[in-house]
Design goal:
disordered N terminus, Methane Monooxygenase Hydroxylase, Chain G, domain 1, 207 residues
């Protein structure tokens, strides 16, 4: 029987806190890309949010080291925490490319992908909120499936954007810039899906 004591619930609470941080980071990236002004200040704020996520992950791992009994396997706690950190790492890396590459305007397909990243991180926040009651939850699997669907939609936009980039862009430097930016955006969506897949594995273990 899967029962979580109040003491063990701290891991799920920390997951939720971390997911909220990830979601906030995604919102900030979208704000940067939609309202492309004050770029340096917005990138700095994203950096700070990424550092906060690092601290959340550190808190989870510290709690893991202190705990004799955990609500789910220790390696799953570690993997979920680190993969959520990968999302904010990818978001920060994406943001830095705009400054590094001296990007002057944002392509519409990139805005579409970042909107999907925001959607996916919001679903992950719901996933983490439902984990505590994973055996009873009727919403958890639906949210996991939705993250997978969003990632598939993002793949389609990504492939189309890359194809269009090579067809319509005559400036080779712009091609190099945007190919890498699109890859980082797509990697961010992949990291979101990786978190959802890890949680799905946990759910299957405790079914």
């Amino acid at each position: 029987m899967f029962r979580v004591t109040s003491r063990e619930e701290i891991f799920f609470d920390l997951f939720v806190e971390t997911a909220n941080n990830v979601c906030r980071s995604a919102d900030m990236l979208e704000e940067l890309m939609i309202n492309y002004v004050n770029v340096n200040e917005k990138i700095k704020a994203i950096e700070e949010t990424e550092h906060e996520c690092d601290q959340h992950v550190h808190d989870i791992l510290k709690q893991l080291n202190r705990s004799f009994i955990t609500p789910i396997d220790r390696e799953d706690i570690y993997a979920i925490a680190k993969e959520m950190d990968n999302i904010t790492d990818a978001i920060e890396s994406t943001a830095h490319r705009f400054r590094m590459f001296n990007v002057t305007s944002i392509r519409e397909d990139a805005k579409k992908i970042v909107a999907l990243i925001v959607q996916s991180t919001k679903e992950l926040t719901g996933v983490m909120s439902e984990m505590k009651d994973m055996k009873k939850s009727t919403a958890l699997r639906k949210k996991i499936i939705e993250v997978n669907r969003i990632e598939n939609e993002g793949d389609e936009i990504y492939r189309s954007a890359i194809a269009q980039l090579f067809v319509s862009e005559k400036d080779a430097i712009e091609v190099v810039k945007w190919k890498e930016i699109y890859e980082f955006l797509e990697n961010t969506l992949d990291a979101c899906e990786d978190v959802a897949n890890l949680v799905e594995g946990v759910v299957m273990k405790h079914a």
